[in-house]
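Worked Example 4.2. Consider the chain below.
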Amino acid sequence: MTYFAHSGTLGDKSDWQSLQEHLLEVAEMAADFARPFGFEKPAYIAGLFHDLGKYDPDFQRRLEGANVSVDHSTAGAAMLHSLGRDNDALVAELVAYTILGHHAGLPDKHNEFGHCLKRRIEGYSDRLDPMWKDEITYDLTGLTSQRIARAMHARKEARYAWFDFSVITRFLFSCLVDADFKNTERFYAAREGRQIDREWPALQDLLPGFIKRFEAHMAGIRGESDLNRLRDNILSHVRAGAAMEPGLFTLTVPTGGGKTLASLGFALDHAKRHGHSRIVYAIPFTSIVDQTADIFRAVLGPEHILEHHSSIDEEHPDRKQFPTSRDRLKLAMEDWAAPVIVTTNVQFFESLFAARTSRARKLHNIAGSIIILDEAQTIPRPLLKPCVRMLDSLAHLFGCTIVLCTATQPALAAPDFPDGLDLGGRELAPDPPGLFQKLRRARIERVGDMDNAALVAAIADEEQALVIVNSRRHALELYRDAETAGLDGLVHLTTRQCAAHRREILANIRHRLKDKRPCRVIATSLIEAGVDVDFPRVWRAETGLDSIIQAAGRCNREGRKAWENSVVSVFRALDCPPPREIAGLVGDMERMIKDYEDDLLSLAAIEAYFGEVYWRAGSEKLDERKILEDFRIGMDGTDFAFRAVAEKFLMIESNMEPVIVQFDDKAKKAVNELGVENIRPGAIARKLQSYIVPVPMKARELLIRNGHVVFERPDLRGDQFAVLKSSDLYKEEIGLLWEDAEYLALESSQI
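Applying the procedure from the previous section yields the following structure tokens:
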């Protein structure tokens, strides 16, 4: 009897994929994925055992159309778990997690619901045809590879060293899931005569051209000003650091110092010298992903840059609606195989702590990468310790170089930070304290209480001004008050607008500033980090010192005025008090400000501020959700809680859901492509990510219930793509007004 992995259409089964072929091919591909970090043996075994349950005769009946349910993931995990011996038993258990989770996601070792590794393996009864042993040859000796053994020995004294085992499991899981996806996709693509998603070229093959283009670009923007000479000096010093051995680095450059291009120059040179496989640039806010990606495209060319920040759901939760491998392919998203990736901190870290297959499949491509974390200080403090531990594991186990790139460097180094990083002597910038003095462009003054009326009066006296507040609600209220007052050149900029729309708005702002026309912008913090605008006057609602410094980077950015005459006024917003977290940061600043009142933009003030923040939080508050405690190793092997951790590792706890706005013809065309079955969802999501507006969950439910938002082609895409159908709700000057959904629904019902 021939056992099959995937069915075809022909009665003689000549276009079906044999199970033996699938297992061997997935094993080989998974091993190839794991080879760069030395884990190819356990990855091969994961591929070989992952679909062992399809040797159950009932599964073959299911492929032939029988209405039977078969759990085909437990068999391979149970077999492997029972076969693991001595020193290899622990790694066998790690691989068992990956096999159990290769469809439904990484499980917990224990939980109260029963869908856990321990209960599934203990409850397994062997129903496999013994012929599997004739078709599948395996060798479990040496499952603990030398690379794993050496890495673990080197780190055995480190606190939380057991966390490394969980990261190894995640990377093995990624190798298996991606290999399974790709092999299945290639089988169906060949059968259907269609092409698979694009194949990316290797970074190492592109580097000579990239470096040549980079140097030509830098030569083209050089000038004779003092600022440009300083930027050239920073760039030269940073690039010289590329000769250092891979690992952890900091790049501390104040706003205006050219750190984005400097970090890219370092990454290109470092990759050439040390053979890194890709460059991952992670950014704190979706609002500036587009801008950074555009910079990289201008420098390196547009065809090799993957921009990935989509908040579109990457895996349909209803497994019954999409039960087959072919159906799941319709939902598969990004694998991060591109040579250069621009993404968000949220996408980056939540993928590293995810349990779902669709998010985790990209992880193995992170190994051997250069990872630049822009504005590293924005990592949420309740998750800071797990993120720091993950960065440490990536550097020490997976050959990554990590650059903490920021104008306001957080104190993440040991011993100042609890269980911090070893960053001694790894600063890439020349003389950071001196740079802060040379690049000073503004001064900060604290002006006390201001209500909306006072703010409107203040900006009325300025032709060009920027006001930054702490919430979308406050921004909208202030904008409407300023609009009522009849102020000219008024601009509203928040995440109510999709990224494509914000890009147009920012271009208009820059033109107005350059032409010295009235330009009064009311925005949230999205305008702070990395957005290249230059205002003569700025107001900032009270917040943490790091955000205030970022706001100051939008004031006199090009140094056209003396810094003493360029003022950032920090006010207490009477009409909209800050949320609790921000209020805590304001308190941190108040406690350290007495020593730095006259020099809040100095590096010493920044270091004192972060020291205060971390002191207040304490070690426990830096892992508030106890992520690290959910990964232990004891006498009974591992006790890992992958699923539980994935549920509580949320960098943004806002209960926001994406709504796609058909803002222009490109968006409309991409929405229409959702009806074309042969177009991969990842390819469409790439096109639509610039047209997403995050909406409160309850508001989106109301929009859906009242018919303003619909899921496009749910038969093909599930509930991945929620599209706005009522264009009246999206205003040119404001963006999406979901608050009007109830009113419009009532109005339409009365017509």
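The radius of gyration is 27 Å. The chain has four domains: 4-189, 214-220+245-309+334-430, 441-600, 656-749. Compare this with Example 4.1 before moving on.
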